[in-house]
Amino acid sequence: MPKTAVVSGGARGIGRTLARYFLEKQYHVFILDIDEQELTHTTRTHLKSYYDSKAVDSAICDLRNTDEIYEKIQQAAKFLDGHIDVVINNGAPFVVSQACIPFMKNEKDTAPVTDDSHSTAGPCIINIGSFRAKQSDPNQEGYASAKAGLLGLTHSMAVSLQPFGIRVNLVAPGRIKAGHESKEGDEKGVEWAHLNEDKDVEDHLTNRAGRPLDIAQAVEYMVNAGFVTGQDLIVDGGAVMIK
């Protein structure tokens, strides 16, 4: 039986990369987003082979509307055969998680582990934050404080969801060039390399800006890291170390 994932805010950018990456890892994926044009393109054109094989589906969802989120998660759970293994929150992390939890609980993941051969990573929630929670440019008070709040939400959820065997972690992207991950990018043949500038080399110890794939690989680590919960992982090419 394939593992399953819900990705909120997955129609374009990093969210689209995450949906595609986990489909490539043989997951079945359900995507939520408010942008109907981008979501339709991503689901039925960009991911056509997965859509045709019924590995991916999606729903238009206003992630500011609690009732709508619960309704669309019911739709997601039905598509995913009633069980959700992974929730990747690229938007509305608290409400999306609360709606998904009933479909994530697994009694075998709450029992004490005494035999390593039977230990699994179990269900998990990954919140997508930002390196701006820990480093700011001028006049970013609102954005920085919101992203810092996600750190508190993440470790609080990790404690609260321990009885259900659900781990909660956060991945904090830095400057990720993701404009090519879109309908327009596909139609114009834009690639990641086209988006880079000299400043991207200067601003990163890794001598480049970030790729959406960098975030997907970090999320995959958190999904499989069964002894990691309540943590945040900054993926920013060392940008927070420069200033």
From TrEMBL:
It holds the Pfam family adh_short_C2. SUPFAM superfamilies: NAD(P)-binding Rossmann-fold domains. PROSITE patterns: ADH_SHORT (PS00061). It comes from the Eukaryota. One of its GO terms (molecular function) is oxidoreductase activity. Keywords: NADP, Oxidoreductase. Belongs to the short-chain dehydrogenases/reductases (SDR) family. PANTHER family: DEHYDROGENASES, SHORT CHAIN, ESTRADIOL 17-BETA-DEHYDROGENASE 8-RELATED. This is Short chain alcohol dehydrogenase. It comes from Fusarium xylarioides.
